[in-house]
Amino acid sequence: MAKTATKAVSQKDISRFRYTLKEMNRNKVGYVMIAPFMLVFTLFTVAPVVVSMVISFTDFNLLQAPNFVFLDNYIRLFLDDDIFLIAIKNTFVFAAIVGPAGYLMSFMVAWFINELEPKIRAVVTLIFYAPSISGHVYLIWGTLFSGDSYGWVNGFLLNYNLIDEEIQFFEDADYVMPLCIVVALWMSLGTSFLSFIAGLQGVDRSLYEAGAVDGVRNRWQELWYITLPSMRPQLMFGAIMSITSSFGFGGVVDALCGNPSVDYCAWTIMHHLNDYGGARFEVGYSSAIAVVLFAIMMGANALVKKLISKVGS
After folding, report:
1. pTM of the full structure
2. DSSP run (H or E) holding 181
3. If both were cysteines, with which of 102, 110, 172, 298 could 188 make a disulfide (CB 3.0 to 4.6 Å apart)?
């Protein structure tokens, strides 16, 4: 006697809750395998974010018990803290220039390197990637723009009588921000740069032949309709890395310009966060700053995700 075929159960036949439980039971092996990662991720990523959000509503200094002050920290942040407003302006200026410019530069360089022969490609990749993995190599910019006559730029300008006295580049508000932006762009060919190279290497070559049949006539059309849609995961990863680095840029500014920079001209939200959290130990207030920075980065991430989804359309 033939067995009766089992009817497939769809989500419409049962409630959403029972359907979810059924799917979880069917994929229980996968959940067990991913459980260690989820446990570590929850403990060291999700939990600290949630705790920081809670602490941001308190007056906490690590020595006394937290005292809930509700929105007082946020009111103080936006209405009473003039330095924070300067930090927000500098952070957005910095992120608006370094983020997109570094992202595009990483992709264009990766696209250029992808056209080279494999052996040459490896050498050129190392050359471009080296600044981002060389530790404090950015301090070479301190030598280039040193404020005395031994600085290479000052020495060159003095030798050709272009200036009468040394320029204090990292002590002049007119030069600090542009120089920091240039250094950030110089160091921007990092992990996202490598991910773009990997994405370009992974594009199925048969898609270009199919595109030629469908009317793709030049390299720019290939890039927009075939290459970019094929590497959306790498594009998103590179965007996240660019957002993180551009909004979290601060250590290089401290090393080159001191802390704080002259007239707070390169003071960022990260500087403000480190000042109140690491120096003044106003943990509640610094947590409020961290929550604001987190919200800004999440908004930027959502915007970039929406833009990338339109690639190739």
Report:
1. 0.81
2. helix 173-186
3. 102
